[in-house]
């Protein structure tokens, strides 16, 4: 489980490279989809909890940027807006890139709809109390 996540969920590109980095190979998306579909319900919950916890937002980076934003309050508006944009970008979970690329492969949108249905089911049945899953 951990191996597939490390292989398919790429690191978030740096702020400067956010629009310039190449997309991950389509095979990553397909491999992720195939693996998830092969899991049992309990395994899916465990997998999604791991995905959301370990491959979500880098909270330390976001905290550092929030502190930097406070420090820039006395500076010019352009600097403040730049730091705000960096903070906004830092709040992007790592798995977002993977899900975006999954939506572009054959059967990807249906997969994402099914994944969302699983998440709603887990949330409504109170099976998971993980704050990352909420």
Draw up the topology in text:
Layout: H1 2-8, H2 26-37, H3 41-54, H4 59-71, H5 77-90, H6 95-102, H7 108-124
Structural class: mainly alpha
Strand content: under 5%
- Rounded to the nearest angstrom, the distance between the terminal CA atoms is 21 Å
Largest sheet: none
Radius of gyration: 17 Å
Overall body shape: globular
Number of strands: 0
Number of helices: 7
Low-confidence stretches: none
Percent range for helical residues?
Answer: 55-70%
Order of helices and strands: HHHHHHH
* Mean pLDDT over all positions: 90
InterPro entries: Malonyl_CoA_deC (IPR038917), MCD_N (IPR035372), MCD_N_sf (IPR038351)
Domain Malonyl-CoA decarboxylase N-terminal: 55-125
Protein name: Malonyl-CoA decarboxylase N-terminal domain-containing protein
Organism: Cirrhinus mrigala (Mrigala)
Short structural summary:
This protein has helices at 2-8, 26-37, 41-54, 59-71, 77-90, 95-102, 108-124.
What does this structure look like?
By secondary structure, this protein is mostly helical. The chain has 7 helices and no strands. The protein has helices at 2-8, 26-37, 41-54, 59-71, 77-90, 95-102, 108-124. Helix 1 packs antiparallel against helix 2. The two termini are 21 Å apart. The model has no long low-confidence stretch (mean pLDDT 90). This is Malonyl-CoA decarboxylase N-terminal domain-containing protein. It comes from Cirrhinus mrigala (Mrigala). Pfam families: MCD_N.
């Amino acid at each position: 489980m951990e191996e597939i996540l490390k292989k398919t969920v790429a690191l978030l590109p740096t702020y400067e490279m956010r629009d310039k980095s190449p997309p991950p190979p389509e095979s990553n998306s397909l491999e992720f989809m195939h693996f998830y579909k092969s899991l049992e319900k309990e395994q899916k919950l465990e997998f999604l909890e791991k995905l959301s916890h370990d491959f979500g937002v880098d909270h330390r980076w976001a905290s550092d940027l929030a502190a930097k934003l406070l420090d820039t309050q006395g500076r010019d508006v352009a600097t403040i807006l730049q730091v705000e944009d960096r903070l906004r970008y830092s709040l992007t979970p790592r798995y977002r890139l993977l899900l975006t690329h999954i939506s572009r492969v054959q059967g990807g949108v249906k997969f994402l709809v099914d994944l969302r249905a699983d998440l709603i089911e887990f949330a409504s049945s109170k099976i998971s109390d993980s704050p990352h899953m909420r």
